[in-house]
Amino acid sequence: MTDHEQRQDAEAAPLRRTDGKTNGEIGPAERLAMNRTGSFDWDLDTRTLDIDDAGLAVFGVDPATFDASPGALVERLEPAERARLDVTIDEAITGGTNSFNVHFRVPLDDGTPQWTHVQARVLRSKDGKAHRIVGIVRDATAEVTHSAFVLDLEKRRQRQTSIVERTTSAMSRAVTVDDVTAALTGPGGLARLGADGLALGLVENSALNIVALSGESLEALDGLGSGDLERNLPLADAIRSGRPRFITSLAALARRYPVLEPHLGKLRFRAAAYLPLVAQARSLGGLALFYRERTVFNADERILCLGLAAIVAQSLQRAMLFDEEREFATQLQSAMLPPRIQDIEGGEIAVRYHAAWSGRQVGGDWYDVISLPKNRYGLVVGDVQGHDTHAAAIMGQLRIALRAYAAEGHPPATVLARASRFLSELDTDRFATCTYAQVDLATGAARVVRAGHLGPLIRHTDGRVGSPQVRGGLPLGISTEFKDEEYPETRLDLVPGETFVLYTDGLVEEPGADLDTGVEALRNEVSAGPAGAEALADHLSDRLWERWGSGDDVALLVLRRSPDVGSSHAPRLHQYIHQADPEGLSDARAIVRQALADWDMGEFADDAELVTGELLVNVLLHTEGGAVLTLEVLPEPVRRIRLSVQDRSSAWPRRRTPGETSTSGRGLLLLDAVATRWGIEPRGEGKAVWCEIGPAPPPATAAPPSAAEAQAPPAGRR
User: Where along the chain is composition biased (Low complexity) (predicted)?
Assistant: First the structure.
């Protein structure tokens, strides 16, 4: 292509104007400015500047008045521009370079700035000293302005790309409708959208319901938000028509929607985009974006707004579907669990159920409380393998079967064996785990069995939490397949005021941590929580579900035996000492001493502590279980202490005559020496050894011996 042809193509090609208009041609004045180029020769020795008329025109200097002095040109520059030009020239001369170029602004006579470009070569003598600078000077305004416009355009495009990417990322993590609104209105929500305010409305039964507001928004004003979809308001209009509305002035907004005119004084934004939210041809609602600084929406900005609306619409559609599935799953689970837990005599029960956020992936966790004869209750918490509707269906059948076996009066081991057989006969590949306990609140006796499940926790009256060792069998279903339906029972005792906690693994499973960590956290929360069953269940729900998240179902059952603290005149305490607790004996002694000090009977603390140790050691060494310690004040006819230790052994202690070197056999001798009266009473499956410490009652009012005392070895001081 010849130079002439190239010039013709350049003249014919449409270029972007420097005033921001698109698809326009450069006018003659602009083309003249682009072609204004002159040359100069600067003699550094004589300090004279030879510059042609075209070069002087670039500087806006009349050739008739120019005196060949370089200062006559640079004096027109602003001080900052002059300093920048001087530095560039000095660095080129002293730095040894042979050329330089620089852009600077020259103010014209009409006050407008002109970008000027100087490209020069430094001529040096043989010794390297600069003596001349020759070069060209030209008007570069159009070039620089166009370059700045391109850079600004690229920045805007990068900003738009960032808005789309950040919004897409935030919406991809939204699962529910609440998650979508939180992503839009939460920290950084408006910044992600590049707006100063927003309103999100959903269509519900031919009405518009505003579900999210943030920043400055029209819908935040009274009467302009939720309501009839047929009202002549901008967001409702965009939803009804399915077309976006771009508002670039409040006056235009009032002309189009006259009902808004009285409210214009309350609005601080200058532009708004009302965008319909449509997904798969279904109108979901509308999104309004408000801007304080914007006054126009160019083509790119309109496309950006429509893209944001599409992202939000798709996220809303997905979230609405999830919420519908979630509601279905929750209703299904609720229908299979007891609608309410009955009030019980001698205690209080609280249950909680927390469903995992997994759409139709229904869990198989369950709980149940079964009324049994003689004021006994069957307590069960279990978990069917899997998270789907099949697991929920099996859970419902298994719960009903286990309830039926328990109601027939079978012992706990038989109940689980039959439940395992029932699950196996369902011909399913699922298994289930559970813990089942029969509790007699009158005596505090609890018979517990486990089928591959977590054992219970017991919170004692002093706040300590124990994990009793409950022997277990295989999970239900698996035990029948392996022909091993043995579920050994473990006997536990709940003293008045103690709390029994059953739970499923969802309560203690923490992502990335082992199960022991979660169980220890549960123990700490049970210990720190309030005493009442309902209050403790709420405490555990709030603390642990929030900590672990919602990745698994959780069933929780809390039983508290009613406390028996006596009265202020005759106080009473109960304490269970587990056989496997190495610190239980010393803790019991400390509890007895502290109680007597609190009851103003500290003078009997030494004797009571000694007797407590002797009676408990006898139980822990010679029986198969733990002991229940009861300490109370007998106020009449004289104030004294009654101490009782109950165990599950039917063998009564025998008085012996130990030799001088014997290490045992002196317990009853000590009891006889310290106590005013003592004896043995039968208690259900076991017995209780009791004693009284303090002043003896007057002989005339002394109570006749009980049947147990009549059978006991001779007791009392001699």
Answer: 703-718
